[in-house]
Amino acid sequence: MEIEKIYAQIQELVTVFGMRILAAVAILFFGWWAAKIIRSIIRKLMERAHVDPTIITFVKNLAYIALLAFVFIAALGKLGIQTASFIAVLGAAGLAVGLALQGSLANFAAGVLLIIFRPFRVDDVIDAAGVIGKVEKIEVFTTQLKTPDNKTIIIPNSKLTADNIVNISAKPTRRVDMIFGVGYEDDLDKVKQVIESVLTEDQRILKDPAPTIGLVELADSSVNFAVRPWVNAADYWDVYFDTHEKMKKRFDAEMIAIPYPQRDVHVYEHKAAEA
């Protein structure tokens, strides 16, 4: 009788635990299969939305790992194992990792925003985080710029999104801001005619919008004219340098006095050198 009772108990335990083991295996198998399908769906949806491949790879793998962790915990629960401790350990580990990598996570989040919203693209010239340069790479954690003097600068993405981003080459045209000073004894109408003729002769200067020529300041030793023609972005610096040279030569030919030294006027766009 005792043997029969023991046998019956063993049979009952095997039946109960056997069913639990089979259920746990089924959960693992179907959960793994479902996780693969969901990962594939996420990839296809993000590709249709034209999301950056780097973001697609990261998101689909993160979702896959999270689903597998959920499936594993569900399988342990089916076996009768208390999963609360596992969940607590995973939560504590996630919190510790988050605190240790909070800087990297901030850069990652900023990188995702840059890739999604595209405030600038590769080959754009930007002024951001106190640096002016051409964008060479946009990665998840950092952005690489090349400065006009051929230096490579790697900027954490969180610094880029924390302040203003000026995309210098976003528009097809740009305004060239220049200041030309002449003597107080010069005929201002003649000066304006000379400036207009120099601008008109340059085919790179756009007719629409028309250049602006105006007297901007009566300085201590000069009368300063603001000259603001519009050009295609690629012609900005060529027009800037050539116009200064042509204006000096034309003033000399027309006997227009240029005070020396000419007043040094700093304009923001003059700093925005194209790399």
Backbone shape: rod-shaped
The average pLDDT value, as a whole number, equals 81
**Spatial order of strands in the largest sheet:** 4-3-2-1-5
Oligomeric state, counting identical vs distinct chains? single chain
- What is the CATH fold-level name of the largest domain? Helix Hairpins
Broad CATH class of the largest domain: Mainly Alpha
Spatial gap, N to C terminus: 93 Å
Low-confidence stretches: 262-275
Structure notes:
This protein is of the alpha+beta class. The chain folds into three domains: 2-100, Orthogonal Bundle (Helix Hairpins); 119-167, SH3 type barrels (Roll); 173-271, 2-Layer Sandwich (Alpha-Beta Plaits), CATH 3.30.70.100. It is built from eight helices and ten strands. It has a five-stranded antiparallel sheet. Strands 7-9-8 form a three-stranded antiparallel sheet, covered by helices on one side. Strands 6-10 form a two-stranded antiparallel ribbon. β8 and β9 (223-228) form a beta hairpin. The protein is rod-shaped, with a radius of gyration of 34 Å. 15% of the residues are buried.
